[in-house]
Design brief:
Strand 1, helix 2 and strand 2 form a beta-alpha-beta unit. The protein is 46% helix and 13% strand. The protein has one domain: TIM Barrel. It is α/β, with parallel strands linked by helices and 274 residues long.
Length: 274
Amino acid sequence: MKEKNFILIEMIFLVFLVPFMMQVNAYAYDESVTTNKNPEKELIPQKVYGDVSENSTHKKVVYLTFDDGPSKNNTPEILDILNKNNVKASFFLIGKKAELNKDIVKNLYSSGMCIFSHSYSHEYEKIYKSKEAYIEDFSACNSVISNITGEKSYDFVRLPGGSYNKVSKDMVMNDIRQYLKSNNVKYIDWNVSSADATPYKVSSDTIRDNVISQCKYWDVSVVLMHDSEGKRSTVEALPEIIKYLKEDGYTFKTFKDTDSEEINRMIKYKILNR
């Protein structure tokens, strides 16, 4: 009798557990799921891919992007790697860090890197309190960048956590997105994530493999990386990432030299103005 009861309990357990485990696995591999611990995990569209077939008329383009800098330790090394490989990238800066590292910002600018706002403070509760709070922060960051470089950089922006992060209120984010669109500011997300946004250490091999495996699906790849203080593994992974992308026939571009055809593809792939 005990054995029959045990079997019955086991069957009931499996009936309820299996669907639950399938749901857990679905979320574990869906990088569009966002958590408060890691609001930038991630905005990768899962069902829309670029045309990477041999018959594609599109040239393969990659935009390397770096958020949360500049930092004294990592940004100069990243810049050195980019310069040695004759590659341009886009840097989305935090204004208060830029104020503390003006020489690094000047070096980025003089090297032909693309510089735009990521935010002034990167404090989610402050930035996303309201549309007005975001505009104030956005304007402050742009003022810092223009004061250092002598050039206005208002055309593109990357929102902290992405344009559909789950930390802020949906209504506030919608107001912010509409404000940016109405002022001809394009907000850029990403479709390739290095996964270096996590507060935990990620190996350089993992970062490299993340970028390479995801770029294979896209003819336009916008790669999310970070050049902030703790991202040593990103620096270490960058040379191999560049080497692979060059060998695979990608053209490196920044958002200053993108064209309308690529803009349209990024909109289609839900990378830009999503």
